[in-house]
Amino acid sequence: MQILPFRGGALVCFIASLLFVASFCNADAKTVEVVGAGECADCAENNLEISQAFSGLRVSIDCKPENGKNFKTRGSGELDKQGNFKVFVPEDLVENGELKAECYAQLHSVSAAPCPAHDGLESAKLVLKSRSDGKHEFGLRGKLRFSPLTCASAFFWPHIKFPPLPKWNHPPLPKFPLPPFKGFHHHYPIIPPIYKKPLPPPSPVYKPPPVPVNPPVPIYKPPPVPVYKPPPVPVKP
């Protein structure tokens, strides 16, 4: 009767030690997430809804090590209807609160093909936004701008091609003979065409030629005769 309490106390101590170790391990755990948003470049010009342009698009976080040449995908996620995304990446990418490699966000179409970036790689580069209680949040320098013409969403993806219908292997339908056509054994008279007598051409109307009008004869007036007056005679005082 005294062994049961001892076993129960040992079990309680074992569970408490496990919880203490788990809490100690979780204290050093880090959460690294990347948040950002996409932007449709020409949706307004093409009268396209934003939710249709973002449907089925995904984003991947590609990092290039310091001593490496090729990019490696460290996380991926899907864009929501507003174009926002959140991707969790491994915690080994962060050291002392900074990224150990250059990481960029790459947008992918619904067919998993990479989409060209309108603003270059600098707008898709990861930068630190906040850090608190072991949580590191990274964002982009800009937005992932794209065009639906070069980055097709699920709205523009072609429909599923179903297999062709099976061939018709049944025998052809029988041909039923038509009843004979009964003639009336007489011909209808041919109505001659009715021709209308053409109208005579209109008689020409002759008008006399116009009488030329001569300009009026100018009237010349002789110049006026000058009147000469004798000079005044001086008067002596």
TrEMBL record:
Keywords: Signal. Residues 1-29 form the signal peptide. The keyword GTP-binding does not apply. It comes from the Eukaryota. Pfam families: Pollen_Ole_e_1. This is Proline-rich protein. It comes from Gossypium gossypioides (Mexican cotton).
